[in-house]
């Protein structure tokens, strides 16, 4: 059931990316998409009644959660952060150039023929 | 003889070292940036060539980080397929680097462009040589981040809008690929490619787990869709149509010649053939899909808005042909597929860079619609454009003609007669459409041209184009048996070995 909820979150992210026109909402949708995948990965490593995967001298570990998905998520989150930062920077530049956050208006402005300047 | 295992990590370290040197020495003087880039790329081209020259009896070389062993270690693996992609990527990188040296003069922060270029190269190398799924994903992201920054480098309106669209699509593709990796890890408990192949084989065939068939199909579908979005193959091609007209020519050339093959075609080949293993059903689905992709590209190529869009759609159709050739799964079809891949990489970069010459000549003007070359105004540029178009649409004696001929004959001999006829018709029709669209586009506006002084084309840019044209002709050598055996047979054998790749990797690691 809990894995199914991750897929629902993933679907919400996909819906946002495909349907939303506002650039900021698009960025948030991509973040939701990514976090759904990270949550699924962490859940894949979880074991009911599993111990923390840390070696301690006075403790015997018989059954622990899988540590590899946790480290994978850490690395993937950092990469995702870099991509999101780049996305936000581009969004800011887009606003400076087009004066709007609406992706449809941006496409309309972009496809208008530019005036030819014959004087160099 | 040098130890090949010690050379493998240099493909990651040297471009990163280049980024560091550029940041350190090349901030003030562009000359140092040019020098560092030239020596780094030339050195890496020689290094990738060494992998062919210093051939040992072992066809697979495995490097394990920090002295660990498979399947726990992070590994870099170089086999025939990785060799082929490394050399083809570096050939194209060298040509694009020569073109960049003077093209980027018109923009500021040259060293930043070169640093992003080397970062892209690091990621591309990492994808090719990585021996586990998560490392492949990470290097894929590194390549993607560098490509996003390069696309937006000129900070023009069109470039930013295209860059944003490309980034959203890239993030979606990465999320889908990561989901596929997670599900694969969940069912195999390992990330090493060789071990995944082992585990999938054991669970599917030895343990005869009935659910595994569906799981493998789901993993394949997720990874396939992710790689297709990255490649821009129909129906995930919405970003490709605006590509060449929005971004700098060298970046467009990098996208077509390096990023699409490395992020789309290579992972598909590796995972479909060596890890999951091709089944008759999966190959049939891939063949149908490839044919549909070629037909779809033809449909979109019917009325392109400009020549750059025509180039983009024709290139996607050619990538579809590569996938069809690989999915035929016979030695000759795969041979034709590799030749076709080389043809696309070289000619797509060639026509994109040639179109970029127009940008360079009329800079700082932006409008290109009224200007192109005629024989009288610029005979050299006109001849170059005609030759590059001829190479692009695969006229003989360029390599594209022979690759398509080999694929059509191989597909026919594999008893897929309908596919062979379909490919022949699509190829002829697409070439005819491309020629027709080139003729229809606006011709020279002599008033505009006479009022404005055109920038002179620099030697390195012309040299890069001539080199790419030379490669289109020179690669005909691969049709000779001796050269085919040395340079292409290892890659063909890797594809045909399918899941025996896993045993070969473990054997190579034990023999170290």
Question: What's this model, at a glance?
Answer:
The complex is a heterodimer of chains A (120) and B (512). Chain A has 120 residues and is mainly α.
Task: Write up this protein.
- Chain A has 120 residues and is mainly α.
- Chain A has one domain: Helix Hairpins.
- Chain A contains four helices and no strands.
- In chain A, α1 runs antiparallel to α2.
- Chain B is mainly alpha-helical and 512 residues long.
- Chain B has a domain of 202 residues.
- Chain B is 75% helix and 2% strand.
- In chain B, strands 1-2 form a two-stranded antiparallel sheet.
- Chains A and B meet through α1, α2, α3 and α4 of A and α6 and α7 of B.
Please give a handful of descriptors for the protein shown:
heterodimer; A: 120 residues; mainly alpha; Helix Hairpins; 4 helices; 68% helix; 0% strand; elongated; disordered C terminus; B: 512 residues; globular
Number of helices of chain A: 4
Low confidence ranges of chain A = 115-120
Query: What oligomerization state is this entry in?
Result: heterodimer
Structural class, judged by helices and strands of chain B? mainly alpha
**How many strand units of chain B?**
2
Name the shape of chain B in a single word. Answer: globular
Order of helices and strands of chain B: HHHEEHHHHHHHHHHHHHHHHHH
Largest sheet of chain B: 2 strands, antiparallel
Tell me the series of helices and strands of chain A, N- to C-terminal: HHHH
For the largest beta-sheet of chain A, the strand count, sense and barrel status come to:
none
């Amino acid at each position: 059931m809990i894995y199914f909820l991750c897929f629902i979150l993933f679907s919400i992210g996909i819906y946002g990316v495909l349907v939303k026109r506002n650039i900021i909402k698009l960025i948030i949708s991509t973040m939701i998409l990514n976090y759904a995948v990270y949550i699924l990965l962490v859940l894949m490593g979880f074991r009911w009644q599993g111990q923390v995967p840390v070696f301690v001298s006075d403790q015997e570990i018989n059954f622990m959660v899988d540590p590899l998905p946790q480290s994978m998520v850490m690395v993937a989150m950092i990469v995702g952060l870099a991509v999101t930062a780049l996305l936000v920077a581009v969004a800011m530049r887009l606003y400076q150039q087009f004066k709007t956050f609406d992706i449809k208006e941006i496409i309309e402005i972009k496809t208008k023929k530019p005036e030819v300047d014959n004087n160099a | 003889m040098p130890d090949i295992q010690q050379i493998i990590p240099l493909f990651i370290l040297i471009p990163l070292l280049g980024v560091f040197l550029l940041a350190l020495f090349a901030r003030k003087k562009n000359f140092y940036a040019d020098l560092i880039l030239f020596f780094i790329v030339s050195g890496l081209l020689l290094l990738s060539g060494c992998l062919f020259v210093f051939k040992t009896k072992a066809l697979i070389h495995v490097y394990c980080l920090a002295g660990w062993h498979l399947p726990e270690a992070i590994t870099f693996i170089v086999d025939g397929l990785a060799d082929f992609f490394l050399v083809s990527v570096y050939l194209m990188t060298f040509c694009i680097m020569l073109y960049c040296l003077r093209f980027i003069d018109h923009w500021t922060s040259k060293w930043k462009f070169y640093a992003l270029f080397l970062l892209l190269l690091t990621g591309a190398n990492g994808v090719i040589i990585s021996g586990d799924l998560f490392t492949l994903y990470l290097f894929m992201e590194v390549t993607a981040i560098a490509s996003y920054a390069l696309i937006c480098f000129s900070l023009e309106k069109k470039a930013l809008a295209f860059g944003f669209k490309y980034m959203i699509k890239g993030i979606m593709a990465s999320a889908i690929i990561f989901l596929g990796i997670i599900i694969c890890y969940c069912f195999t408990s390992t990330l090493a490619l060789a071990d995944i192949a082992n585990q999938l084989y054991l669970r599917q065939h030895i343990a005869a787990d009935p659910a595994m068939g569906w799981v493998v199909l789901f993993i394949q579908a997720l990874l396939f869709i992710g790689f297709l979005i990255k490649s821009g193959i129909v129906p995930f091609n919405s970003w490709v149509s605006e590509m060449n007209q929005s971004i700098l020519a060298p970046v467009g050339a990098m996208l077509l010649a390096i990023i699409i093959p490395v992020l789309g075609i290579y992972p598909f080949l590796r995972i479909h053939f060596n890890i999951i293993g091709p089944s008759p059903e999966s190959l049939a689905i891939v063949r149908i899909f490839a044919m549909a992709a070629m037909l779809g590209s033809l449909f979109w190529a019917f009325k392109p808005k400009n020549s750059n869009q025509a180039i983009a759609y024709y290139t996607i159709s050619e990538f579809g042909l590569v996938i069809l050739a690989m999915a035929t799964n016979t030695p000759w079809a795969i041979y034709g597929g590799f030749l076709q891949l080389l043809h696309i990489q070289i000619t797509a970069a060639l026509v994109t860079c040639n179109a970029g010459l127009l940008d360079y000549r009329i800079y700082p003007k932006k409008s290109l619609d009224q200007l192109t070359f005629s024989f009288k105004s610029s005979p050299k540029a006109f001849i170059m454009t005609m030759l590059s178009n001829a190479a692009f649409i695969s006229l003989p004696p360029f390599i594209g003609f022979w690759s398509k001929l080999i694929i059509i004959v191989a597909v026919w001999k594999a008893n897929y007669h309908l596919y062979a006829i379909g490919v022949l018709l699509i190829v002829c029709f697409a070439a005819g459409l491309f020629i027709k669209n080139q003729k229809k586009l606006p011709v020279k506006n002599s008033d505009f041209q006479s009022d404005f002084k055109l920038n002179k084309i620099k030697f390195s840019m012309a040299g890069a184009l001539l080199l790419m044209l030379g490669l289109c002709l020179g690669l005909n050598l691969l049709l000779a048996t001796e050269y085919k055996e040395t340079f292409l047979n290892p890659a063909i054998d890797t594809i045909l070995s399918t899941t025996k790749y896993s045993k070969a990797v473990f054997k190579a690691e034990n023999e170290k």
